Amino acid sequence: MTDRESAAKVAKWLVEKGRSEEAVTLLAAWASQGPSDPEAHQLLAEALRIAPGSRVAQQAFERMEGVAAGDQVELNEAIARYTRDEVQKLEKEIARPVFRKAQVGFNNNVKYRGIAFHIQTEDSGLDKPHIITHLFADGGRIIKSHKRSYAAEVSRSDIAMYVRQLMKGQHMEMAIMLREGRFDPVIDGKAIGGIETLEETPRTEVQKLATKRATRAEASAREAVPSVAPPPPGPELTMADAMLGKPPAKPRYRLSVQRSLTGGPAFYEPDGEGAIIGRDGAVALPGEKFCHPREAQLRWIEGRVWLQDLEAGNGVYLRIKQPVELEIGDEFIVGDQLLAVERNPVADDAPDPAPTYFYSSPKWPSSFRVVQVFEGGAKGACVVARGTTMLFGSAVGDFVFAHDSLVSEQHCLLEEQAGSIVLTDLESRTGVFVRIKGEQELVHGDELIVGRTRLLFELT
Q1: Distance separating the N- and C-terminal Cα atoms of the chain
Q2: Of 68, 98, 125, 260, which is the most exposed, with the fewest CB atoms less than 10 Å away?
Q3: pLDDT tens digit sequence for 50-59
């Protein structure tokens, strides 16, 4: 591997660690050293992609084109800093699973009340084992700070992973508390924020549903209403009981039809321990063309009901009751719109052999994109997140569905927080539904969507 290849590898790692400014400086330094060949222009193009307005990248471009002006102090400092030894040192750290002093933190912009706030979480390292999170407004004013110590955990064998999860939880907790209005008096200048030392586990209230194959998710962490404990099942009805006129055992649960475009029963009350959703089973949904004959199954196991996707059709979608963590490839429904989260494609706007740079509109950093999915699987509109957030609605937002009567003015928010993509329902009228691909526990009051049919799950 050449020195410039090593520089490119290290720069990519720095970006992934949230150290974009260092990555740009490293790329500019190695692009401006040596021949001004395609490899050098590739490094510079990547630096300009990360930070189009970078001064050190501009100086590198001037030096490469032979039009350098002034002392170019920033570039000279970058070259002196990122020597071959320094690049090799950083390259060795890429595969190192533990941290020595402090782990790289998280930085996110969050919109609230029409204002952009910034959340920053940092680790102080094993010498001073604590995590601190700051909430900034007005470009630098600290609204609130949270601090947690992990001194009692430093001897753990998995301390690096433990601290990473603690940082992530504390970062997401600050965003949730901001949206709950906990810091409104401080924002309005009526109270003093200050720093608060916390001892309890971070309150994230973010649940990862069974959105992947072969996964199982319990409902306890996402219940918004108390579950109803069903009565113990009675004995099965025998032929002798039927002849004596005894009533059959009461069904354990009911699926009430809240919306159907094709008609059919008002509710379904399956008997037995399991039931298929689809025309091959007890929950037939007649006329629902988007429902596979065996779309999913419901199973009663020791007093709990589980929804399992059968991987054959279009899937079953569960209404979220609190923020939910998604991953790339997950699907969700807003109104009548089916949407999928995708990773942004790798940029391919590198210079040609001339070299001539690709001319385009200014770019902005983006964590993900969302694509509309039409019938038959065709892709529709595609919206790229501006930074780390994307707002959905019928009148306000980045992704607007003006003609969908089921979409609220501001319906839901999708944002990257501490390396996770979190979907939040903004108290919409019709809710937000996430596709279940594994096995998901259901509780009383859960709502499902199968095709265009909406169902309410109730324990009887």
Answers
A1: 66
A2: 98
A3: 888 899 999 9
